[in-house]
Amino acid sequence: MSAVSTQSVPQGKSLGASLGASLGASQGISLGSCATGPKIVQERGQREVFCGLTGIVWLHRKIQDAFFLVVGSRTCAHLIQSAAGVMIFAEPRFATAIIDERDLAGLADIDDELDRVVTRLIERRPDIKLLFLVGSCPSEVIKLDLSRAAQRLSQQMTPNVRVLAYSGSGIETTFTQGEDACLSALVAQAQRADAAQKPSLLVVGALADAVEDQFRRLFAQMGIERVDFLPARRAADMPMIGPGTKFLLAQPFLTDTARALEALGAQHLPALYPLGAEGVAEWLRAAARAFGVSRETFEAVIAAPRARAEKSLERWRPHLAGKRVFFVPDSQLEPPMARFLARELGMEIVEIGAPYVDRRRLAEELALLPPDTPIVEGQDVERQLDRLRAARPDLAVCGLGLANPLEAEGFATKWSIELVFTPVQGFEQAGDLAELFARPLMRRELLEI
Q: Which H or E run includes 317?
């Protein structure tokens, strides 16, 4: 196993999240349904998505003393380098241990090689307190057991460094599921809180620090004292979890993490996702109800920031109202984004495509969508592009791999990955979220003059 340098980190290389197409089990379409809201069509075929390694691009910025070591190929390394935009003099907190021909041929013990790379990394970066071994398509194909390697290395390096493993492979997953896998690994190793511990609120999902601080202030003003965030900014601050934990999901793609939390006795608070003035208000309201905050106190706390959010949306509504938008599957953010655009900005939803639709975690969102909205779970990219071309929407929200070809055909597009990289949750960010959708339409109008 060779380790390729990540600029200033010897024997490591900035890793990659590859954009690829994988073939599903069939080309057919079957109908599914949800208890409330529109019917959901399941589609299986060729798909275009980033792999789960992409989550490292925002996770390594969030957990400030963590390091993400991908065990993968040079393709992983090269593409994450491009996705992260890391310059040559930077010192990022991620790298790739390259699986080379000696490893594949059995000429070197791959576990010994991995131990050697990790040891050199920790020597070079003593600030690392939490190390993630991240599986990739190549490591999964050769059946490399990174979970066992993480246990072995964690025992060797305790108490200075904790080592965890998760899969970022793109064989059967989409790019936001990398965060889900990472947070699930954290939950599996979290300290357990007993039933007698005072109830606490846990916000689950990586948020920008500025957004996290805003939410902390609002919860404090409501009188909710014990509030934790997963992931925390530092490894030592990861929350304790138990029967007294009530949690809100900040992202709709954290299905496995939510399931792991519930297995430890934590209680999920169903709510809209904190996107747009309406979404943030209802998300906060779910916490207020769970912790006995009076209606008067709650309304007083959110009144000013909600008014600012609604005012910020007024600027962009003339550019978006009445425009037709088509969501191509990519991030799993598509249903709440569609709800935001339809209800708060007056856009018409042509089709909502999402890689996966967790009906339980999205029940509140689905119930507020127009009842005739087509929702497609999964993807057959050729069929979907045919529907998009026939519908001729004003805006197509899609992945990077489809955006340029669609632009060449005359469509205005929005990169869906930008909706994950940009801070969009919270009252103060509502206008920024609307602007992301308005900008390509405004650019198109200028070009047509």
A: helix 317-320
Q: Of how many residues is the chain composed?
A: 449
Chain-centroid distance, C-alpha 321: 28
Phi, psi of 176 (to 5 degrees): -70, -20
Strand partners, 216: none
Does residue 178 contact residue 68 with C-beta atoms inside 8 Å?
A: no
Average pLDDT over residues 99-111: 64
This model's pTM is above 0.85: yes
From the number of C-beta atoms within 10 Å of its C-beta (0-12, 13-18, 19+), residue 398 rates as buried
Pick from 65, 435, 359, 32: nearest CA to 236: 65
Cα 434 to chain centroid distance, Å, stands at 19
Identify the three-state secondary structure at position 91: coil
Residue 305: which of 364, 365, 242, 221 has the closest Cα?
Answer: 221
**Alpha carbon distances (Å) from 260 to 13, 163, 175, 232:** 32, 19, 20, 17
Using alpha carbons, select from 328, 329, 334, 339 the residue that is nearest to residue 411: 328
Q: 413: which strand partners?
A: 396
Delineate the domains of the chain, giving CATH numbers in brackets: 2-22+52-175 (3.40.50.1980), 200-309 (3.40.50.1980), 312-448 (3.40.50.1980)
Beta bridge partners of 285: none
- 135-157 pLDDT, tens digit per residue, is 998 888 888 899 999 999 999 99
Structure tokens at 310: 């609604």
- The pairing of strands 29-32 and 40-44 is antiparallel
Contacts of residue 298, defined as CB under 8 A and 6 or more positions apart, other chains included, come to: 222, 284, 285, 288
What integer pLDDT is reported at residue 175 of this predicted model?
A: 85
Q: Could you read off the pLDDT of 231-284 as tens digits, one per residue?
A: 999 999 999 999 999 999 999 999 999 999 999 999 999 999 999 999 999 999
Indicate the average pLDDT of the chain: 87
Q: How far is CA 109 from the centre of its chain?
A: 34
- The C-alpha angle with vertex 314 and arms to 311 and 317, in degrees rounded to 5, equals 155
